[in-house]
Amino acid sequence: MNWTVIQQALPVFAKGFELTLWLSLIGIVGSIIVGVLASLIQYFKIPVLSQITTAYVELGRNTPLLIQLFFLYYAFPVIGLKMSAEVCGIVGLIFLGGAYMAEGFTGGFNGVTESQISSGKALGMTNMQLARYVVFPQGFALSMPALTANIIFLIKETSIFSVIAIPELTNTALDLIGMYYRSNEYLFMLVVAYAIILIPIILLLTWLERRVRYGAFGD
Question: Could you tell me the pTM of the whole model?
């Protein structure tokens, strides 16, 4: 292990680190928004939209991100829809993540008791009001374990972006290995970089999960 090699590669890895964080953040936020909307559509069984959402969730969960990225990056330009590699990566991550988030939120929303829904309807609440004041607050707390797992999963999935030449952490490490043949040093830096990202996020989400569940259920 040559520490001089590691020191020299730090500026390059810093750029890959920053890009990985940025792509992950946009992808996770977009996935949560898509997931919440999709799960609420399924929960309230909105005609036509619920069938479309179900098809989307099944397609998103049952196709690899690698294939989705290839389709976005290579197939879309054929029909005139050309996107940069970064945009393709974000769209692919949101497409994949939204499907997984939808399943997680659906499980949480289904945990809300039917008696509370019936009570809300008896009070004259619309579906929008039920979603805002009854289903979402309680369902979100129940969905926290799935949300935590999906966020971690999506951050790790950014490593797939290397196949479309996005210079994130994995692509940076592979490029340096190809140029200088120092596998041990660059792979070590890759592992450390992902650990720096993931460990604090895991600790934060675990703490948040406990706080949310304590606030909702008092245990």
Answer: 0.88
